[in-house]
């Protein structure tokens, strides 16, 4: 079988799995998983990030410990815990997609928490102080003054986190989730004679996706820093 | 669920498997670190060199490696790359612990791409006049780097390199997918053999955490002992 014949026969399988006749898989599943993972991790990461810098020690210490434990453990370990423990804990057998999704959300939230913390701490302290002296409570100051500014700074980091998440979904391979790496391996087993080409195609697919997104992050970063530079000038003019 | 059984972790066959896994994971970490650091320095110097061609090669390397997941690298080096070699070499490789070799190749290339970026930004943090002064005194590009820039850049570079080492430690677990008998692989094997998941996974999690804690601790100690000087 030549490379082109292989593409012709398995190309669609690589992109969407057995869909629409069977479950969604391949590249489409990778993207769906990464998007859902990051979207669900965002609110949790925001809460953890706020907890991490909270003035109340009773909240700050456990959250810091949790973030540290998750960041010190490989994602694969989190996946294994989710895969073997969720069923025995809840009594319901979680399917592979949801197992992977839960592991990704927990893992990403811990990383997002650090992005949120860094974004908030990068703002001048005078912002919080000014808001507090205007009579806003701590939570109001966070919600109305600090977070809207900090989130804008975090945008490039968030796009980069999406790139990381796409790369992380490849670990679904180990629990047999039909994302693009798993599908590539299946195709390799079926075709058998083209391993180098198949794995290079897999690499190239990830590259196009992730490189494109990292360029977007780069562009956003430049655009945001230009705005920042001109903003004070507008005020003085 | 039955009670936590410490005995399988303390003695016997499963104890040996888990400990062997931990040792192999640590070996993967140390060997990769020893290979990746010089490669990363080489890439960083290429990106900062005056030759456009070297810059382009190094940039392509970094972008091509970083935008593909480590798992795909592992699959490529284990299943894809040997196909390019002659039959006898391939058979020989698969008989001689190729799982570990492929894992080290993938980990080294992957870690070096990330570390080279940290080295590069560390070197760039040193004011350009230092390089210019070195060159003006008659040192070559490499001599200026070695004698003037790198000793200063070291202090700025070590903290990010420590966090890359932490990532590398966690990434060694991905070698499981190609059957390298490291900690994660052995933990899963013990799980299958004993039908107990809490003990082997607990052992693996605690091992990963302890080494992570140790690496982070070393990084903090270095930052405290050798703080970055303002230039």
- How helix-rich are the residues of chain B, as a percent range? over 70%
H/E series of chain B: HHHHHHHHHH
* CATH fold field value of chain B: MetI-like fold
Number of domains of chain B: 1
Number of helices of chain A: 9
* Radius of gyration based on Cα positions of chain B: 21 Å
Query: What's the overall average pLDDT of chain B, rounded?
Result: 93
- Corresponding CATH architecture of chain A: Orthogonal Bundle
Provide the helix percentage of chain A. over 70%
Shape of chain B: flat
From the spread of the alpha carbons, the general shape of chain A counts as globular
The N- to C-terminal Cα distance of chain B equals 60 Å
In CATH, the architecture of chain B is Orthogonal Bundle
Quickly describe the structure:
The complex is a heterodimer of chains A (237) and B (231). Chain A has 237 residues and is an all-alpha fold.
């Amino acid at each position: 079988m030549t490379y082109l014949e292989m593409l012709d026969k398995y190309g669609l399988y690589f992109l969407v799995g057995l869909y629409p006749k069977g479950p969604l898989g391949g590249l489409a599943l990778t993207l769906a998983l990464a998007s859902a993972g990051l979207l669900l991790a965002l609110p949790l990461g925001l809460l953890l990030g706020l907890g991490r810098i909270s003035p109340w020690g009773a909240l700050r210490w456990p959250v810091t410990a949790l973030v540290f434990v998750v960041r010190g453990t490989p994602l694969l370990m989190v996946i294994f815990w989710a895969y073997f423990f969720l069923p025995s804990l809840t009594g319901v057998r979680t399917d592979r997609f949801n197992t992977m999704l839960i592991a990704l959300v927990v893992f990403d939230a811990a990383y997002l928490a650090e992005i949120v913390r860094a974004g908030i701490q990068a703002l001048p302290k005078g912002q919080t102080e000014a808001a507090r002296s205007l009579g806003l409570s701590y939570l109001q100051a966070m919600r109305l003054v600090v977070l809207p500014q900090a989130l804008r700074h975090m945008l490039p980091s968030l796009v980069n986190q999406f790139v990381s998440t796409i790369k992380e979904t490849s670990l679904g391979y180990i629990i047999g989730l039909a994302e693009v790496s798993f599908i590539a391996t299946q195709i390799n087993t079926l075709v058998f004679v083209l391993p180098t080409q198949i794995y290079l195609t897999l690499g190239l697919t990830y590259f196009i996706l992730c490189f494109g997104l990292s360029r977007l992050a780069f562009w956003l970063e430049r655009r945001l820093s230009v705005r920042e530079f001109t903003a004070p000038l507008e005020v003085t003019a | 669920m039955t009670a936590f059984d410490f005995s399988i972790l303390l003695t016997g066959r499963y104890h040996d498997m888990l400990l062997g896994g931990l040792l192999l994971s640590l070996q993967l970490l140390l060997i990769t670190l020893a290979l990746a650091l010089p490669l990363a320095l080489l890439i960083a110097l290429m990106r900062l060199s005056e030759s456009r061609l070297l810059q382009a090669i190094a940039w392509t390397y970094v972008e091509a490696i970083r935008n593909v997941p480590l798992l795909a690298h592992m699959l490529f080096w284990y299943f894809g790359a040997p196909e390019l070699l002659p039959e006898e070499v391939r058979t020989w490789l698969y008989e001689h612990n190729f799982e570990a070799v492929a894992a080290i190749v993938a980990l080294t290339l992957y870690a070096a791409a990330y570390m080279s970026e940290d080295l590069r930004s560390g070197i760039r943090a040193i004011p350009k006049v230092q390089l210019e002064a070195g060159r003006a005194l008659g040192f070559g590009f490499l001599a200026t780097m070695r004698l003037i820039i790198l000793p200063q850049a070291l202090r700025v570079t070590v903290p990010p390199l420590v966090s890359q080492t932490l990532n590398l430690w966690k990434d060694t677990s991905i070698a499981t997918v190609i059957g390298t008998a490291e900690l994660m692989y052995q933990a899963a094997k013990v799980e299958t053999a004993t039908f107990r998941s809490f003990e082997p996974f607990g052992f693996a999690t605690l091992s990963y955490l302890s080494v992570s804690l140790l690496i982070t601790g070393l990084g903090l100690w270095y930052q405290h002992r050798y703080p970055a000087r303002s230039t």
